[in-house]
Specification:
29% of the residues lie in helices and 44% in strands. By secondary structure, it is α+β, with helices and mostly antiparallel strands.
């Protein structure tokens, strides 16, 4: 009976040790998240890949999916020293990145690992999904990943907000009026009237020349009349 009791105790201890090892290797969860952001159409914006509740992470692979008609991938930058990443983005709106850190990341608070830069192509609310796998620590043990996606709110730029526009058409705020005169529509919206470019100055010059000619004509006519009267007076005296 005593031998049987000892056998049960040994088996129970072995089971508890195995269970503890299993929890240590596979039970640890690391939270990965993408930062929500707000931007405007045609603007470049950043989305950070953050990690939280991290005691030891050395490498992982992540995938981002988004609407390629609304969002265009541009570049990435690393936020952790002694780290490296390989990023591949497809035209179908799928980005895959492999992250490797020489010194394992150990942060309990939220920490930014990588920043991805995108261009907003369409106004509206757009989602970027996230999946992270093959997460390992410095002991080459697998870790579980919890993934949190993000939302990108893209606002439409008002036509009068030319300073925010990055459109290639630099004359988008100008148009021709009904008389074929080139006018600045931005000035019209801000001041309440339409300023016709290059027309006011010409009008004032023309009016000045016309006024000068009229004055010369009046003076010439007055001199002519005085001359005629003088001649008549001289002839009468003779």
């Amino acid at each position: 009976m005593t031998g049987f009791f000892k056998t049960v105790v040994v088996l129970l201890l072995c089971f508890l040790i195995l269970l503890a090892s299993f929890v240590t290797c596979f039970g640890a969860e690391v939270e990965f998240s993408l930062s929500d952001t707000e931007t405007k159409k045609n603007r470049i914006f950043d989305v950070a890949l953050n990690v939280e509740n991290c005691s030891d992470v050395s490498a992982f692979i992540c995938e981002l999916e988004y609407d390629p008609a609304a969002i265009e991938y541009k570049s990435f930058s690393l936020n952790i020293e002694n780290s490296d990443a390989q990023v591949n983005a497809s035209e179908e709106g799928r980005l895959k990145a492999a992250f490797l850190c020489e010194e394992s990341v150990s942060e309990e608070d939220k920490t930014s690992l990588v920043t991805f830069s995108f261009k907003a192509l369409k106004a509206g609310e757009h989602n970027i999904s996230l999946s992270v796998y093959d997460v390992i620590n410095s002991e080459y043990e697998d870790l579980e990943a919890v993934c949190i996606p993000c939302v990108v709110n893209v606002a439409q730029i008002p036509l009068k907000d030319s300073s925010d526009s990055q459109s290639d058409n630099s004359d988008s705020n100008y148009a021709f009026d009904s008389e074929g005169v080139f006018e600045d529509s931005t000035a019209k919206e801000e001041s309440g009237y339409t300023k016709i470019k290059g027309n006011d100055d010409n009008k004032f010059i023309f009016l000045g020349i016309l006024s000068g000619l009229s004055l010369l004509a009046i003076v010439g006519y007055a001199c002519y009349k005085l001359g005629v009267k003088s001649r008549k007076k001289v002839n009468n005296e003779k």
